[in-house]
Amino acid sequence: METINCKHVEPNGKVCRRVAFRNLFYCYAHRHLYLGGETRTEYEKRRKTLSVSSLDYEPPIMKAMLEDPEPHTDPEPEQEPRPLPPDWDELQEEGGWWDTALVDPTPEEMKKEALANAEVAKRSLKAEEIYTVASLGGEVTDEMFGRDFQSSIVMGGITGAGILLAIPFLPVIALVILGAAVNAPMQGGGDVATDMISSISEGLWKPHIFAIFILGGSFLGFGDHRKRTEALARGYADQGKPPSQGRI
Q1: pLDDT digits (tens, 9 = 90+) for 13-51
Q2: Residue 246 pLDDT more than 50?
Q3: Residue 98, phi then psi, degrees to nearest 5
Q4: What Å distances lie between residue 186 and 93, 197, 243, CA to CA?
Q5: CA within 20 to 30 Å of 33's CA: 46, 67, 96, 244, which one?
C-alpha cells in the first residue's frame, strides 16, 4: 500500500506530516480522534464506483476535517496562586535551631581556634593557620611553625624512601584484608606472600628508584616549607610588621 502522510489538521491550520498508520488516513498519534472512520481500503473500493466530478470522490473524512469548525474549548477556571515555599530561615529561627544574635567570631577567637585545632591534632600549624595567627597579631613560635628548611627537606626524603620500602607489602596486606572480608583465606599462606614481596621488591628496590623517591619527597618537603614561610610573611605583612619580625 502506498505510503501517505497523516491527514489531520490542527485548528490553527497546521497539517500533520507524520506517516499514516497502517490502513488508516491518520498517524498513530491522531488515529484515536477518528474512531470508526473509513479506512483507505474501504475508500479505494468505494471510489471505483464514483466519477472524478462526484462530491463523494474525495474521502469524506477529509471533507469533514476541513469543514469542521474550530473546536471550542471552555476557559479554564481561575486557579488560586500556589503558596510560596516556606522561608527556612524563619522556621529554623522560630524552632530555636539557630540564634540570629550570633555574631562573627572575633580575631582573638579565630586565633584560638587555629591553635586549638593544632593542639588537638598534636602537630604544628598548617600554612592557613600560620597566616591566621600571624595576620591577627599573634606570635608564631618555632613549635607552631614546625620544621625548618633543612629538616623539611630531610624528612621529605625519608618519607619518600619509606613509601618505596612499603610498596611491596601493600598488595599482600590488601589480599589478606580482602580474604578476611569474603571469608576466603589466601591459598598458600606465607609462601605466596613471601614470593610476592620478593618479586616486587626486586623490581623496585634499586638505587635509581630510591633516588627518585627521595628526591620527590625532598621536593615536597621544600614545597611545604615554602608555603608555610609565605603564609607567615603574608600574615605579618597584613599586620604591617617588617619581615624581620617573622620567621622568614
Answers
A1: 888 888 888 888 888 888 888 887 778 788 778 777 766
A2: no
A3: -150, 165
A4: 58, 15, 60
A5: 46
The backbone torsions φ and ψ at residue 62, rounded to the nearest 5 degrees and listed phi first, read: -70, -45
In the block, which residue shows the cell 544574635?
A: 101
**C-alpha separations of 150 from 131, 156, 159, 220, 226 in Å:** 22, 10, 14, 13, 12
